[in-house]
Every structure is written in structure tokens, then in C-alpha cells.
Amino acid sequence: MELSVRIERWPLAGAFTISRGTKTEAVVVVAELSDGTHRGRGESVPYARYGETPDGVVAAIEALRPALGRGLTRADLQSVMPAGAARNALDCAYWDVNAKAAARPVHELAGLVAPAPRITAYTISLAAPAAMAEAAERAAGRPLLKVKLGSGDDDGMRIAAVRRAAPRAELIVDANEGWTGDNLAQNLAACANAGVTLIEQPLPEGQDAALAGIKRAIPVCADESVHDRASLDALIGRYDAVNIKLDKTGGLTEALALAAAAEQRGFAIMVGCMVATSLSMAPAMLVAQRARVVDLDGPLLLAKDRADGLRYDGSLAYPAGAALWG
After folding, report:
1. Tens of pLDDT, residues 149-185
2. Which of 12, 22, 24, 271 has most Cβ atoms within 10 angstroms of its Cβ?
3. Distance between CA 205 and CA 30 in Å, rounded?
4. What is the homologous superfamily of the domain 2-103 according to CATH?
5. Which of 100, 146, 245, 248 is catalytic?
6. pTM score
7. What is the distance between the alpha carbons of residues 114 and 319, in angstroms, rounded to a whole number?
8. Catalytic: which of 146, 148, 215, 304?
9. What is the CATH code of the structural domain delimited by 118-317?
10. Catalytic status, residue 248
11. Which is it for the CA torsion 218, 314, 119, 87, positive or negative?
12. Domain ranges in the chain with CATH number 3.20.20.120
């Protein structure tokens, strides 16, 4: 396979804030693989939370250039590169080029049914309660809102304000590891009072043992605490669901395997994304077919998506067309 790789920057429509900081652009790495006739693409988002940088991801991909030239396969890739953004870009590029070479869509190559449109969450960024209420009011017609929390003892006020502004929307919460053992119970209670149906990663990875011993009325979903199948057994008894993101699993190949293994252990499935273009969302839509909650709103947060991007009808996300991926 011939390789090309590059960094792209996509401005956001506005600031995107979580408990760890604010961003105004999506920085992605795009890998392209060519068999000499067909070309496939994959996109990933290097994530500083896991020690990744755009330059580091590009360097990791470039390091495989000789092996790619010698015929490295997608199956080989799973063992020669660890899970993460670099492998995600390459793995998804493999799926795309292999589908084009076979003249068959990726879902057929993976033994899956054709993907159907899915309702995606729409994210309300972390801010002061009044600002979050204003954002929620603008999005109140959407069926599913994802509310970013994780900033101290004001989170109860934030989720209450969002609920008042969007009384009919289903609410899920993402604390991004921002809560502590001291405020966990009060924040869970505030979310229950607001009718929240799912809470992502309330406690920091590695400090989430407290979840095994606390009563809760709302299912809790692992995000930062789950990467690939090797993460699953440590989550039993602590979490009710897992958030599968291709940038964590290292691509569609492991994401599909992780979904199956999680279901076998009784976990519900959520599919999530980083802020990125439709090229990142396209393979995730295949995993989304088996998910209870879908959060693939990354392109909706951009000032402009790439050409041939996913079609969104409000919060209804349609699968990618062949011109984009797969």
C-alpha cells in the first residue's frame, strides 16, 4: 500500500468546552492508502488526554510506511500498532480502500446489515448555568441533548437550568472525569431530579472504584475508563454501559469486536466521537447500529464540514455515501 498522511484544521462554529478546557478548532489527522488503483481514507483526532499530539500521530503512521510497502494488512495492523488515534486513521483507511477494491460496501465486508439513520445526541458545552440554559433553549427541539458537566459544585444548578430550558428532550450527562467522591452523590441526585437517563465517566479513570459501592438510579457509562477489549473486565460492577470511540479503540476493527465483547458481559453500548468531520463519523455509524445511545454530532459543531459529509436532518444522522467513505 502507498501511504499519504496529513494534519487538517477545521474551525468550530463556536467554542467547545468540557471540564478539561476549551477548543475552537478540530485538529485531525487524515491517512490515505492506495493499492495503485483505489484510494481509501481514514480520519482520527489526536487526544492530549492520552498523550497524543497531531505530530506524534503522523510520526507513528509514517513509521509504518516501509511495512505498508511490504504488504502489511489490516489484520497485521492490529498487533503492530497500539490502540489509539494513529491506528484508527490507518484502520479506517484500510476498510475504505478494501471496500473500493472489492466493489462492496464496508458493512458487507464486515458481515453487517446495511446501516440505517440514527438519532444522535447534540452537545451542550460546559458554561455558567444561564449560558447553558440559553444553549439548551436553542436546541430544545432536538430529541437528545448531551450536557457537559464536571466543574465543581455548580453542576446541580447547570443540569437543572438545562432541564427547565429543554423540558421535553432526553438528557444525558458527560462529566469528563470532573466529579469527585465528595460530590458524586449530590451530583447523581441532581441528575436524577432532572430526569437524566445516562451519565458518562463521572470519576477519573483509575479512581472509579467508588462506583461499585454507590446506589444510583441512573446508568453510568464508562468513557475514559474503556479503550478496547482489554479494558472491559475491570469495569464489571462499576459501570452499566461503555462508550465506544474509534479514536480509543484504534479503528473500526477493534470497535466492532469491543461492542460484541461488551454485550456479552451485559454492558449497554454507546457510540461517541471527538469533534471531527464526517470522515470520522462514517465508520462509527456502523457501530452505532447496535448502540442504545449515539453521540455522533461532531460535524454539527464545525463551521463547515468536508464535501460529501453525512447528512443530518435535525438530529437524525444518515449513513455515509460512497463518495465519503466505505
Report:
1. 998 779 999 999 999 999 999 999 999 999 998 999 9
2. 271
3. 28
4. Enolase-like, N-terminal domain (3.30.390.10)
5. 245
6. 0.95
7. 9
8. 148
9. 3.20.20.120
10. no
11. negative
12. 118-317
